[in-house]
Write a structure and sequence with these properties.
170 residues, alpha+beta, hydrolase, 5 helices, single chain, 2 domains, 7 strands
Length: 170
């Protein structure tokens, strides 16, 4: 039996035993921690996927469409122009908010120099979420997680629901 990746259930059981055993019993899965999520990623379980961890549940986003990618590119350049040296611009990479949340924001601006960091950041000066198909989650659940982590909520967008960008400022 496989669990949606190239790792056998018996091997995964050592990584996330409560979750695997609950699924096998037909019960609701236990929460997966950020550390377990990272280990599963290192094993290749999410290869080719856009996985994220919210409230201990592993979710998968669909492929990024051109309007989303274009909006993210434009916003990233605009944000880079505002920040001075000493900031890293991380696109769709881990941001460990707490033990059960790694939301993989579209853009996170964090202090430091690129490439010289031991672990994933846990705080950000700015988080941007570009929303098209994920608008509801970005406006509700993700905004709450960012606020709980001390990142203050703000937003900007294009009327008509084509997309909206949420900027969470620390």
């Amino acid at each position: 039996m496989r669990v949606g990746c190239s790792v056998e259930v018996n091997h995964v059981r050592t990584l996330v035993p409560a979750a695997v055993e609950a699924v096998q019993r037909g019960a609701a899965a236990a929460q997966v921690t950020v550390q377990e999520f990272d280990r599963l990623g290192a094993l290749g379980c999410f290869e080719g996927r856009r996985a994220l961890l919210l409230d201990g549940v592993i979710l998968q986003q669909g492929p990024m469409d051109p309007p989303h990618a274009n909006a993210l590119e434009v916003l990233t350049e605009a944000v880079r122009a505002v920040f001075e040296a000493g900031w890293r611009f991380r696109g769709q990479t881990p941001l460990h908010l707490d033990q059960f949340n790694n939301p993989m924001p579209d853009l996170a601006v964090v202090a430091g120099r690129p490439g010289y960091n031991q672990g994933h950041p846990t705080v950000a000066a700015l988080v941007v979420e570009v929303s098209d198909s994920t608008l509801h989650t970005d406006l509700t659940a993700k905004a709450e997680w960012y606020a709980t982590a001390g990142i203050v909520d703000g937003s900007c967008g294009i009327p008509g629901g084509l997309w909206a960008a949420r900027a969470m400022l620390a």
